[in-house]
Amino acid sequence: MQSLGPGFCTSLKLPVIRNTQDSLFLRRPSFCSHSLARTSDCLSLRTQNPLAFRGSCLNNRLESGSGVAIVASLSSEGEDAKHGVKKKLAVFVSGGGSNFQSIHEACVAGSVHGEVVALVTNKGGCGGAVYARDNDIPVVLFPRTKEEPNGLFASDLVAALRRYEVDFILLAGYLKLIPVELIQAYPKSILNIHPSLLPAFGGKGYFGMKVHKAVIASGARYSGPTIHFVDEHYDTGRILAQSVVPVLASDTAEELAARVLKEEHRLYVEAVAAICQERIVWREDGIPLIQSIDNPNLYS
């Protein structure tokens, strides 16, 4: 294993990370069939007919009687997916990284139009980091702590991800709060997965088995994973996708966790596939929706 200096360890010989002034752009969805009106920092898409939004799990339909206004992110890279350029992904983990492995395998198989170019972790010896090194994925340590004295500071982390030309950041069991510098550098480009139906059983202190124990103790009949965009706080960013699993009367926390984790692997891969294909559409009230790959008039 070779060292790239403070905060880096990998089995590949890679260039030294230096700070850059690369600019980032918000991304425009791949569809362009509706009328677009430019605003100061985005494109506003207004349909002529009402749209029906379908809940991916509960099949609820929310209908508008006078048309729906949707805000789509603007990008200088608009047709990347169309021209075959894969999105570059950085995955953050603190443990075994089973969601990280699922995403990486989907990228290799081609079901996700992306490439994992870096693994960021606060524990250099965790299972996710071992998997990354075994698959020639660079490992970046963050943050710098007594346990990880070679970890990066926040500004250095941003510079490192810019160097890897990262498009999207995916948190997959990363237990540290994301620094404001990173959120500002990657607006609407950081996803997290949480093992409950947010906003229930979320926030600081709710992670891992603690979540499932709390769900069972509450008497809730349903649980499941939530994928959401990341803001400055724990588990409060805009929800992108959810999937429901039953909580059985005889469930232990371990049994419920296994059932939820299976759904996490499926749902996260689907969400990452959508974001890499630029099928995330932002409604005017700030709600992100996933555009159906089969029918551009359907959203979930």
Task: Give the secondary structure arrangement, pairings included.
Elements: E1 2-3, E2 8-10, E3 36-38, E4 43-46, E5 52-54, E6 61-63, E7 69-72, E8 87-93, H1 98-109, E9 114-121, H2 127-134, E10 139-141, H3 154-163, E11 168-171, H4 180-185, E12 190-194, H5 209-218, E13 222-223, E14 226-229, E15 239-242, E16 245-246, H6 253-276, E17 280-283, E18 288-290
Parallel strand pairs: 8-9, 8-11, 9-10, 11-12
Antiparallel strand pairs: 1-2, 2-10, 3-4, 4-7, 5-6, 7-17, 12-14, 13-16, 14-15, 17-18
Helix pairs in contact: 1-6, 5-6
Protein name: Phosphoribosylglycinamide formyltransferase, chloroplastic
Family: Belongs to the GART family.
Catalytic activity: N(1)-(5-phospho-beta-D-ribosyl)glycinamide + (6R)-10-formyltetrahydrofolate = N(2)-formyl-N(1)-(5-phospho-beta-D-ribosyl)glycinamide + (6S)-5,6,7,8-tetrahydrofolate + H(+)
Look at the structure and give the mean pLDDT: 80
Structural class: alpha+beta
- CATH-defined superfamily of the domain at 2-12 and 82-276: Formyl transferase, N-terminal domain
User: Nearest-angstrom radius of gyration?
Assistant: 19 Å
β content, as a range? 15-25%
**CATH class bucket of the domain at 2-12 and 82-276:** Alpha Beta
Total helical elements: 6
- Spatial strand order of the main sheet: 1-2-10-9-8-11-12-14-15
Order of helices and strands: EEEEEEEEHEHEHEHEHEEEEHEE
Number of strands: 18
Shape: globular
Unreliable parts: 1-81
CATH architecture term of the domain at 2-12 and 82-276: 3-Layer(aba) Sandwich
CATH topology of the domain at 2-12 and 82-276: Rossmann fold
Q: Span between N and C termini?
A: 44 Å
What fraction, in percent, of the residue positions are helical? 10-25%
Which sheet architecture does the biggest sheet show? 9 strands, mixed
